[in-house]
Design goal:
Layout lengths: L1 E7 L16 E5 L5 H8 L8 E4 L2 E3 L10 E5 L23 E3 L4 H9 L4 E3 L5 H10 L3 E3 L3 H4 L7 E2 L6 H12 L19 E3 L10 H6 L3 E3 L6 E2 L3 H18 L2
Parallel strand pairs: 1-5, 6-7, 6-8, 8-9
Antiparallel strand pairs: 1-2, 3-4, 3-5, 10-11, 11-12
Length: 250
């Protein structure tokens, strides 16, 4: 048997039993195990882990734990520079792109509204989610820990909130997305990149009252939907303004 002392930090505690949150605890392992397998057996998925210290030394996920060792497990912290350490977490993607599971359809629309390339379908299989996330270097957002713990998944996150608007705030904060936002650049329905359209181009494709009121339109080349700055646009702008306030009040 291998006897260990372990402590998790920050939001990684969300995955632990209540009595193990925010404290160092004793844990017994039968046989040899890797750091990755040990961490995930206790709850946290590996994509949310950034640094692991064993007896004060940074190690990678393949490190085999030994008897009497002390482990400290850290999430990604935007305010702490961990560059000198061995990081198990991947570097941030230059342009965040997302892949969402079946339960996050409304969140997918909100991310597209902010201009993020976001894939979502209501019939993705678990293995397809893991493969697409890996092959296309997309951040997998899912509330299915089993999917997030698949070895193919490199970039991923488990939204804690259940309300889509709160999930959006959570994801924007976690991945520091405000600087990458390009609002109203993508089709909320299908993820296509929107292009400008003249009133003549959308003639007969929008209600007459809209045609008479607005002069600027956007259209999706994929699904052919037409968008304009109506009341729904104004409500979305309120959300965008609130998200930008996070830069001043994190």
């Amino acid at each position: 048997m291998t006897q260990l002392q372990i402590r998790f930090y920050g939001p990684l505690n969300d995955f632990l039993a209540p009595e193990r949150r925010g404290v160092e605890f004793h844990h017994t392992v039968h046989g040899s195990t890797s750091v990755k397998d040990l961490i995930e057996s206790l709850g946290p998925p590996h994509p949310e882990v950034d640094v692991v210290l064993v007896d004060g030394q940074a190690v990678d996920f393949s490190h085999r734990v030994g008897d009497g060792q002390r482990l400290a497990v850290y999430p990604a912290f935007s305010s702490i520079d961990v560059t000198p350490l061995v990081r198990v977490g991947p570097p941030a993607l230059p342009e965040p792109r997302f892949l969402l599971d079946v339960g996050l359809g409304r969140l997918s629309g909100l991310l597209r509204m902010l201009g993020f390339d976001t894939l979502w379908r209501n019939d993705y299989a678990d293995d397809e989610l893991a493969r697409l996330s890996h092959d296309e270097q997309r951040i997998l957002l899912t509330r299915d820990l089993g999917v997030l713990k698949r070895s193919e998944v490199i970039h991923g996150y488990f939204p804690r909130e259940t309300d889509p608007s709160q999930q959006l705030i959570e994801v924007v904060r976690r991945f520091q997305l405000t600087a990458h936002m390009r609002p109203f650049a993508r089709c909320i329905a299908c993820n296509g990149a929107l292009s400008e359209a003249s009133p003549d181009e959308v003639q007969g494709r929008v209600p007459e009252r809209v045609q008479a009121t607005f002069t600027r339109f956007q259209q999706c080349p994929e699904c052919k939907r037409v968008f304009w700055a109506g009341s729904h646009h104004a409500r979305m702008q309120v959300i965008i303004d609130k998200l930008r306030e996070l830069e001043q009040h994190p």
